[in-house]
Fold these 2 entries.
Entry 1:
Amino acid sequence: MTEFLRFALSGLPLGCVYALMAVGLVLTCRTSGVFNLAFGAQAFVSAAVHYQLHEVYEWPRAASLVVAVAVAGPILGVILDRGLFRYLRSSPVVVRLVVALGLLVALPAMVEVWVGSGVKFDPPGVAPNPDRVFRWGDYALNADQVAAVVATVVLVGALTILLASTRLGLRMRAVVESPRLSELAGVDADRVTTAAWLLSGLMAGLAGVLLSPLFATLDDVNFTVLLVAAIAAAAFGRLSSITLTLAGGLVLGVTQQVLAGYLPLDSVLAQGLRPSLPFAMLFLLLLVLPGLRAGAVDDPLAGVDPPPPPLTVAHRHGITSRLVQAAGVTALVVAALVFVSDYWLFLLSTGVVFAIVFLSITVITGMAGMVSLAQATFAGVGAFTAAQLAVRYDVPILLGMFLGAVLAAGLGALMALPALRLGGVHLTLATLAFALMVDNVVFPLDAVSGGSLGLAVPRPLVGPFDFSGDTAFFLLAVAVFAVAGVATVLVRRGTVGTTLAAMRGSEVATAAMGVNPLRAKALAFALSAGVAGAGGALYAALLGRISPADFTSFFGLFWVVLVVTLGARSVEGALVAGVAFAAFPEFLDAVGLPGEMAYVVFGLGALSFARHPEGAVEAARRGVTALWPGRAR
Amino acid sequence: MTPALEARSIRKSFGGVTALIDVSMVVAPGETVGLIGPNGAGKTTLFDCLSGVQRPDGGRVSMAGRDVTHLPVHRRARLGLGRTFQRVELFPGLTVRQHLLLAERVRTGEGGLWGDLRGQGLASRSEQATVEAMIGLVGLDGAADALVESLDLGHRRLVELARALVGRPTVLLLDEPSSGLDHVETQAMVATLDAVRRERGTAVVLVEHDLDMVTTVAERLYVLDHGVVIAHGEPERVFAEPGVRTAYLGASA
């Protein structure tokens, strides 16, 4: 029993940080309707500011803390509200999600550009004397852990009092109920929302500096895990109850540490289950809590807003422009073969292979209007399946590629079916939880990925055609992309694409025609996962050796941001995104910028999604078309 | 004769608000029934329960004798229940033609993934004929290739009606079909409904605030007030009931 309590106590500080984040998340989510996926990134910013000021510039701890928590955190919150999310209030869920994702990608990268990307050991904590240990009989906590508990109790207590018995608190609760009704009653809802963002920024900052000493290094991945744990806790509180949210965070933190204490250190369970507990819990909560869905829209005046502008772009290109395009692509392919160095040919092949993977995002986000963060995971499923089949059973790699795609498609549909009922933000969260879980539990297994050395993957050999040469492989990649691209266009124009477009417009009316919405969405998910799996397998053959690091869930996040920024609605968008993903680091290197700038550029680029849902490629083409008088539409 | 659509003792409440209390309704095949009542009487909630958008707390819905209470929206649609919405629900980004073609494909089950991949995305000749006939029937000739978001409310209601009709429903639920239409358009809508009823024997239930229109087309009326059916029967008899006049004109009338 003592042992159990000791483990439980050591989980308390972690649970407190989870709870702090979760309460901040709920606060902004309820007042401004934004599910702030960038919240973990906000916490990371404050932690990094504290590290930089205290460790590098050698400021006194207190001064550094004040700047990191009470200045940087709230200011960032207010900037995000006033500069960004305020204008997205009536935007579709997809837009708000993508913008938050862009921030999630861009903010940590901006920090790394500032502080440098090296590993930062022993991030500083809050307590002036971190080595001091508080003991009560058998139980002990160090000063940072005590600080985490005390800070959480004080802050959540203060927030409860603020909400329950102050004017601002009353107004916040009113705005949570209905921003528009509050405005009619003379409340400046915008100011109240800003206050909520300021407060939540403060909480993110505090959570950031409290969390970082609990880990050995300062790493933004820890903050993504923190975010997921916070989302799970917030889901436990059904995105409204602060008490339940607090309880959810504490339970999660304590369970995690108790599991860590009892499970043998080297077992698969300990290595996989413990870190993935928040994801597993989130996934389960999303599935079993029906109230989450019902609570989404309860503003009695929600219908007053004009409907959001449609995301669809009615683009019909004439036959001439198609011919010109085809000729252009052919010319590029020939030029690539004739003029380009081996290294650049490899990069181009990488780009085309990624373009295939990115077509999966064209399908799921561009066509079906859903945001899946598990596309890198599906690509990984395709890649590891093809590789294992080739290594163990001598299955030809192209056949393995097909089987990998089929497995990924099946998995996609299987994962999606229960989550699809949720829709919107919750579906996206479920895909994120799924991706992180596979990241932690499945891909590291030796039987899947061949352990730390990775897996060697052969290149295809079809009858007399040998694709092991770089040139031949490039042509193969182009051919596969062409087939996948044409198929995408056919599906988009056909019944399936029209049905998905109809469901984006009105799901209830589509169902009233006789379409099973779940089936249509699951089909989109399966198609998308299948395309990602095929692309992933081709990528495996291109690289020749793959490891889990090639398919981490972070790529899944970044790819969505990248494709959506450049154009999730067209095949060209996917192609440009693929080439950009492969070649942009080279470009940055050539002009002497750090590699993180890619995340900054495209992460911030995603912010343009609100204005240009068709993506930068299509927007640029329209700009060019408009230059010719008479051709402008 | 088995009713085309029957609701028995439907109950529905939202939190503390009771929207429907023991509402029963019978619609015979080919019959046109009007559903009237003041704002907030529960008319749209009843439509939602009939079409499966909402699940009633109690009671039974059946179509042609078959219990459909637990079937989802799309299954009821396949069984021949069509509906329109009070807040028009169309598909922005699609043209009128695309709306109707999609509805036709859903009805016939043509298309699908393999059809699309074999390049059968464009309408076949018979599909084209169906779509053109429907466009002519509801009078959308000038707007066939327009994106629906560019149409005015009256035309949007017509698109919704046409989309529902393409599905060849046996029962059609229309939620305020004439709101947003001017007098001439309303007359045209009445004529269209008449034609549909005569040619196809479709039963129609319509929620309508325009009492002139509803008494013109409906053979029987149901009057809903505070979630209760306070009167039903032929229009003249219904309007003679004192309770109906109270509900419409206030207690002093």
Entry 2:
Amino acid sequence: MNNIQQLKEKIRGLKVLFVDDEKDVREGTGTFLNKFFDNVEICTNGEEALDVFKKNNHFDIIITDIMMPKMDGIEMSKAIRQIDSKIFIIFLTASRNMKEYDIDLSDITLQKPLSFDDMILIMEKLSEKQW
Amino acid sequence: MQLKYKISISIMLISLFILIFISIFYANWSYKNTLENEKNQLKEKALESAKYIEIELLDKLDLLKTIASAPIVSSYLIQKNQEYDKFTTIQKEKHINALNQKWIESKTEKDSFVKPYLNNELAMFLKKQQEIFAGMYGELFITNGDGAMVASTAKLTTLAHANKYWWRESFANGDGKIFFDDRGFDSSANGYVIGVVYPIKKDGKILGILKANINIMNTLSFVVNRYNKKGDGYLKIVRTKGLVVYEEGKDLLSSTIQCDLLKNLKNLEHNSKILQNNLVAFAPVRLSLDSQEIIFGGKPHSIDHLKGNDDEIWHTVICFDKNKALAQSKETSYMIFYIGVMLIILSGFIAYMVGKWISRPIEELQATQQKLKVQEEIMIAQARHAAMGEMISMIAHQWRQPISAISMGANNILADIQLQTIEENSLKEDTQKILTKTKELSKTIDRFKNFFQSEKNISRVDIKNIIEDSSNVIEKSLQSYNIKLDKNISSQMIETYSRELMQVFISILKNSQEMFLRNKIDDAKISIFMKKLENSVIISFCDNAGGIEESIMSKIFNPYFSTKNEKNGVGLGLYMSKTIVEKHLNGIINVKNIALGVCVEIELPYLLEKGENDE
């Protein structure tokens, strides 16, 4: 078993909520996440994701786009944090200027397009975290 | 060349042209005028001299008349005539011839036969007159009515004179005429002698003939010299057939005048003309012409003179070198030219100053125009750069999704490889997705790539397609900010510069997008409407982004005016849109506030005449 396979074994049990309004990104990233996690929920915007989170508050990780219709990723994350202040959130954005967003510095932000190495690095951090 | 130099040179050239024109005109006018004036003046002077000679001769005649009117003259002649009354005509002739023969044989004045003629009381009277007018008279003598001399101041060659031409002319078959005998040079008097012959009458009958030979050298030289001293040519006294009676510096009767003039003299003309580069004026001495009583003439040859008069009168002839006559005129012409040259130099300086003064506002205007042109070029370049920046931003929006999809496709393949879960079908699916998205990227580039190329020709296009193309370019950007685009448009063919119009549409949509972002509007929407008129179409872009403050509405088309924050806009979008629509597309652009936002209306003609872009 190689390192990636070992990594997958460590994190596959975590529950992931992935939010992105762009269909292609949603499909591609969703496929990728499904390769590593057994339980991945996918939503198209912040409003929908907040509803899903409220109905099923057992997610370990939220991976979300920032700019989305109806409710953007920042607003959604603030609402979710009011429910679960310690939830692990990863923001995805195409913007190069992170300062324009009101993001908690403890959160992780990744720039689109996502690289394989970035994804593995995040998953390694997840595997090291005490759940 | 600078404008001020162009103006000053133009003024100088015009001045030079005017000067040359005036100089030539003046020289020509002056030549003709001066010549004519000189001819007229000479003509008058010739007449004046002729009259002077006439008066002088008449003065001489008057003196002779005075002598003839003395009582002693008539009483002595009556007495002598009575002595002849006893003879018949033949006896008279014989008697006179005998006396004449005796007279000729008498050699000296002391001869006893001669003495009584020279010492009688009448002869003494004549001698007395000769003494009184010393130097004037050569001989003074009187004949009776039959031509026999009765008294004389000197012994003449003959005693009988009835057969002589001057006696016959004066006797005039008993009518009596005054005869001026132009004898020519008299060697005994060493001068020019005129014989004045006067008939002495009583009760209409001729008592005798008085003759005085008068030396008129002084008169002639006075007339000629007086004129010549003035410097206006030289005067000659000439007989009708051309023999010069008197000319300064030459012997009397030694030369003749030019043949060209003889015809004028023969016709007794008083005139002036140009002969061989000379101005020549001539006037007759009208002594005998204006009187029935006076005869002027003579005989070419007789026993006591040569070169006598041959039925001629006298004329005054003035010759004046034409060049000398025109010298004053030439001098004036040269003076005008020199003054003109000075004036040209002066006018050149004035022209330079005037040119400088006139050209200053024009040059300033040109400089301002040039500055404005440069500024406009800078603005166009800035607007182009801004548009390029916006386009690149739009391309980034359009590319973001396919690049993410491509990236995730690759990530999935790598993940399958690492997890050793690779399957042919999923590999094919991911690869196909990557290729599909790559084509999308390529399409986007195609859509944008012609946008920045300059457009030279008007094209006939469907305005619906231009709106669609414009919205395609910005659609992704609008979508990313949740801005809806509602298009209520239909097909309409128009002639226009399509890419420039596309730039306008995108700029308007981009402005709305900026307003939505700034005002954070929910339910953002841009509606595009179309209204077809008879000759034009109106396209309206209306949004609900909050509108424009009325206080700045009048400035929105100004260059460098922007409501956006500094980093987002250069303030040239609407300025360029107005420039394109109104100057290039012959249309009208207006902006007005509506209930929740703003409407930008663009009216475009269906047909567009060839404009500056086609040049």
